Amino acid sequence: MRELVYYVAVSLDGYIAGPDGEFDAFLVEGDHMAGINERFPDTIPTDYAAALGIDQSGGGFDAVLMGANTYAVGLPAAPSPYRHLDQYVFTHRPPAPVDGVTFTDRDPVELVRELKSRDGKDVWLCGGGSLATQLAGEIDRLVLKRQPLLFGDGIPLFTPGTYAPGRFARVSSREFGTGVSFTEYVRA
Known about the structure:
single chain; about 190 residues; alpha/beta; Dihydrofolate Reductase, subunit A; eight-stranded mixed sheet; two-stranded antiparallel sheet; 5 helices; 10 strands
């Protein structure tokens, strides 16, 4: 059965972006990038991967979910950032249609359960914190790219909300010279 995987960069103080949605303080160069490219090549936007010569065909995802703010990061330059994946953007104000992107105001839990019931690779929850909170009970695996920085405020990994407590077990952890660590958890 497919899993919902929340794979995301996070600061030491638990934010996936700064107060104004900025994420440019996250390290995008260094030895940890080879780890990303090796294990999660399909989480790199299609055009960047092509420019870097990264083969995305062996990745573990075939769908990506994101909130409207996460999707808006690449606009207007990249209206279909992950063309190699089925892209779902949750929004109550869908923009004009874009090839390869499904804009939806469906209940995220309902859509995730439907996707999980289909054959295919895992589903990547790209962001953001509000969507992650709505889907907390559906997340099967957390992969946190803990970055050695503090934002002090911003968009948290999970927004305060009402979701049932859930326990996860650590299955792997890898440290890099940059100070970035990858820690992977599965639902216990």
